[in-house]
Amino acid sequence: MVRFKHRYLLCEVVAEDPRCRRCIDERAVTTAAKGALARAYGDYGLACCSIAFTGQVKYLNAYTGVVLLRCRKDFYRLLWSALPLVTHLESRGQRHPCFFHTLHVGGTIRSCQKFLIQYNRRQLVMLLNSCTNKEERESIQKSLLGCFLQEAEEEQFQSGEEEDDCAETD
Amino acid sequence: MRSTRELGLAKPFATRAAQPGHHYLRVSVEFPDGGVRLNAAHFKQLIVSALKELHGEVGAALPVDVLTYDEKTLSAILRVSSSGFVKLWSALTLLGSYQNRKCAFRVVQTSPFLLALSGNSRELVLD
User: Fold this and answer.
1) Interface test with B, best of A43, A48, A73, A170 (most B CBs within 10 A)
2) Is the Cβ pair A44, B56 closer than 8 Å?
3) Domain ranges in chain A?
4) What digits encode the pLDDT tens for the residues B95-118?
5) pLDDT score of A90 more than 50
6) Quick one: CATH architecture of B22-112?
7) Alpha helices for B1-127 (secondary structure H)
8) Would you call B56 and A42 a contact, using CB atoms and an 8 Å cutoff?
9) Does domain A6-107 have CATH number 1.10.3380.30?
10) Strand spans (E) along A16-168
């Protein structure tokens, strides 16, 4: 099979400042990642991981700070090891100190999405334990109930569905 | 044979040395504009800056040793671990300038064994 294989890195942008979340956009994340790659791996590393530059940030959620980055399968380790060297995101002339916390490396977008759904459910449970306000507690409980009901429905319908995203075994 | 992943390349590259081995290179640097004097420390810094440009901080941290250096002919024998051999050679090849002067690295001989660098069958002159 002659096709380009990719690895998708699911990362979370962690920052102290809550205003930082609203300012992250695709360009800031791309420039930060490329800067870290250039510093750590030079021109060679920058070129390896910046093929298909326009399609590199596949998903960005400004509310939770989750970013999905794509790179070639042969060079995903370069990108993965360069991500901890990112210290700040710059956008519109403002600098926000932050760091990238890699959650998952997957071979397809679908596997990353599955992981993200499970991760968000676990985060909701943790948030429920640690929330202070009664209204927050109620809204989190409502969303938790919603997603557990959905999970129960999925299990009923899941009868011999084949999972064909086993590209990670290459 | 090193696997392709260990060398960080997409295509296979074969080195026939013993596994945790070193590679030795005989190199010389040329300045076409002439009149440059480098001592051994400057030479080493030149190599490290070439590695840093092409391969970043990780490349600049590659353990390269200058075993001998001749200031008059600007030639040296370098030693590098086999895993970094390709990075070093590619960085030396792509070095274009040093302190705003044009320069070029010529790699005369390489071998995984230091003894092989003592003789050069290309420059052998009979009679």
Assistant:
1) A43
2) yes
3) 6-107, 116-164
4) 988 888 888 999 988 999 988 888
5) yes
6) 2-Layer Sandwich (3.30)
7) 4-7, 40-60, 85-93
8) yes
9) no
10) 57-61, 66-72, 88-91, 94-106
